[in-house]
Amino acid sequence: MARTYTSTTKTYCNNRFITGPDKGYFISAMVLVFIPEIPFLIFICPLFEEWVTPAIYVVSIYIWLAVYAFLIQTAYTDPGIVPRGVYNDSDIFSSDQRQPLFKKITIKGMTQEVKWCETCSLYRPPRANHCGMCNNCVEKFDHHCPWVGNCIGRRNYKTFLYFLYCTGFKCLFAMGFCVAHIIVEASRIRDQHPDYSSANVFNKALNKSHYLSIIIIVYALAGLMFVGSLGGFHLYLLATNQTTNESIKKTFKKGNPFRKSIFRNIVETFCAPNYPSYYLYNKKKDRELKVLENKPTRTSNDSNNNNSNSNILSNTPNLPSGLFSPSSNNSDGSSSQYSDNQNINNSNNNNNNNNNINDTEIDMKIINDDNSRLSMKRELEVHS
Ligand SMILES: [Zn+2]
Ligand SMILES: [Zn+2]
After folding, report:
1. pLDDT tens digit string along 245-266?
2. Where do the TM regions start and end (predicted)?
3. CA–centroid distance, residue 152 to ligand 1 (Å)
4. Of 336 and 215, more confident
């Protein structure tokens, strides 16, 4: 039997929403974002509605909702979980052999090592790492963020950064208007009571908002220090094309093969389309393979294709009960998982398989999907 370990990741709506196991901090983050907005809208905004524009309500609520949207999107997006391998040690190695712990690969002329993951039964793709909280390997793993309750990886890094910078901007916005509120109220009181001392004027100005303006300033300043320092560090990571995990472990001491110009690093992070999820991909492939299985007859020209289809299905090992039981129990789904991992371990072999099965329309669709996954690994050259 292949080894299986239980993933702690939770999935909803046919794997469309994927999140980590613990949501305690996530709920705290939701509450922390909620708390200051209500007093800000009730006590601070009315002054500026009168003096500046009522649009201040709209702008404030818009940024507030954007913070929530990015927080929830980051928390419930598949970070790029790598489907587990289905290798059985005894299928590949004799009893006195095991998989080598490391394999050397060359990326843009630079040698990197990929490590065998005992838990997931696969060689981790370059830049992937195993998250101990979620118990999965995640592509371009940055870190496991307790505040969003999910890993930050290839597929949700962008929304995580949007969340950080949007929260930072919201803190600055609230602080700016609270400071302005105190100054405007103080000048009003000074005009009405020129004989008041400065301390008295300041005290009465604060009292106008029941001291909430100063409380919001302190609250927002604490938030800004937290997200600002994190946001600044991620700007450095963006510029050097590193993840937090790689930066801490100093993975690219001898050179970073993924590094490009600062402009291109930033543009690729924010403007490139998101990578497809392996799990939604598997669902789509499940449906296509079911259509393939249910096809009544094949044309006479497709005799080779029959062989190739049986190749696809015969390559389908029974997936052990592990991650995401609905798809894991489906033998078709396991086929694509196996195929994905084969891409990593032996891309040449996969290309040969693809060449065998490129005649029928539906097979082409599957191959195109395979190629789209392969293109993600196009810079990878495996020396086994
Ligand atoms: Zn792993
Ligand atoms: Zn995690």
Report:
1. 999 998 888 888 888 899 999 9
2. 25-48, 55-76, 162-184, 211-237
3. 15
4. 215
What pLDDT, on the 0 to 100 scale, is given for residue 296? 58
In angstroms, rounded to a whole number, what is the distance separating the alpha carbons of residues 352 and 234? 41
| 62, HSE (Cβ side, Cα atoms, 13 Å) | 6
Residue in the structure block whose two tokens are 């999140």: 19
**Burial class of residue 79 in the structure, from the number of CB atoms within 10 Å of its CB (0-12 exposed, 13-18 middle, 19+ buried):** buried
Ligand 2 centroid–CA 356 distance in Å is 38
CA–CA–CA angle 371, 375, 376 (5° rounding): 125
Structural tokens at position 220? 């927002």
Q: Where are the beta strands (DSSP E) in the chain?
A: 10-12, 17-19, 102-107, 110-117, 122-123, 129-131, 136-138, 143-145, 150-152, 381-382
Catalytic residue flag (residue 145): yes
How many angstroms separate the first and last alpha carbons of the chain?
25
pLDDT at 197: 87
What confidence score (pLDDT) does residue 329 get? 35
CB 337 within 8 A of CB 84: yes
224 pLDDT above the threshold of 90:
yes
Annotated active-site residue in 117, 145, 171, 178: 145
Measure 119 CA to ligand 2 centroid, in angstroms. 14
pLDDT exceeds 90 at position 206: no
